[in-house]
Amino acid sequence: MNLFVPDYIVSIEPYSQGKPLEELEREYGISDSIKLASNENPLGPSPMAVEAMECSLNKLNRYPDGSGHDLIDKISEKLKVAPDNIVLGNGSDEIIGMLTRALLKQGDEVLLPWPSFLMYDIMVRSVGAIPVYVPLKSFSIDLSSIQSRITQKTRMIFLCNPNNPTGTVFSKKDFENFLEGIPEIVVVVDEAYIEFVRDKYCARGADFLDTDAVVVTLRTFSKVYGLAGIRVGFGIMREEISRILNKVRQPFNVNSLAQAGAIAALGDEAFLKKTLKLVHEGLDFLYGSLERLGIKYFPTQANFFLIDVKRNADEVFESMLREGVIVRSMTSYGYPEYIRINVGLYEENVRFIKAIEKVI
I need a surface site. Which of 56, 202, 291, 316 has the fewest CB within 10 A? Predict the structure, then answer.
């Protein structure tokens, strides 16, 4: 079959999401493994969210609310932004795709910090736009360097705050200075992990919604809310941009269970506090344990962090897997001697420390 595929599509490297836990257990002949590789909530979803989804099961013969009215109203109430500033997505990944599809054309340039979330690169390339990489500085997004790389061809900038995979953040003051020095370019601030941040000076994209800058903020229910399996996220943006995205958005892109679960999750403050307590206490435990072992790590503002294993990270991944602990090698992010782990339950954190001590 002779298919015409544009060169900019051929050049894309598929996103590497890793194998499911069950498949890895079968492949390696192990059982009772733990997964600390995908930055997920180890507590699972809110019980209130589960109950809400169960109550929606008998309505699956009906299409979901294509406007997402109730969920948008709940987000609007919680974050104090107007409903017309909110666009729902099948995960925040879909919002990234809408932005690139609707606002970019072939040949446009997009500035991306490197390393950062790999889907920015894929979505930019998928429309024929050109990713321009700006290296991190001391594991942090270098706003001044990004600013210096802006050209007449620059149409969009992606910033991940906290940054994945390094867990670092930029401050509100630095972001204000950055925005003052750039022309009217769409700045996308991906805040997938913002709820975990303990740094009180961290920038929040929604604070800049009503300024002269064109800032789009991305949020997700996959991390702190524990709803990665149902895929729901949203973007906060100027109404003129939300109207454009709604022209290219699939009509029923967020399913009924996702909407019901997300609405309930937003109302469960007790579960949110429980998650944050577990993650922050888990980070402190892991930091102390790694220091005791003399293993270098990098503090984070997210629920994950980097560890310098001082050897081939892929080999460490394999060795840890044989101990029943799934971590993430950072080779694809340009850190061939680093692994990334997310906080698990206390007993999972203990098991990780025992395994890393044995492997390293």
Answer: 291
Q: Could you tell me the residue range of the domain that residue 339 belongs to?
A: 16-44+270-359
In a shared domain, residues 169 and 189: yes
Whether residue 219 is found in the same domain as residue 306: no
Give the pLDDT score at 273. 98
Q: What are phi and psi of 35, to 5 degrees?
A: -110, 120
Domain assignment of residue 7, yes or no: no
CATH code, domain with 34: 3.90.1150.10
pLDDT tens, position by position, 339-360: 999 999 999 999 999 999 999 9
The token pair that represents 320 in the structure block: 């840890």
pTM, two decimal places: 0.95
Q: Is the dihedral of CA 143, 169, 310, 317 positive or negative?
A: negative
Q: Radius of gyration over alpha carbons of the chain, in Å?
A: 21
Cα separation, 128 vs 29, whole angstroms: 43
- Segment (H or E) for 133: strand 130-135
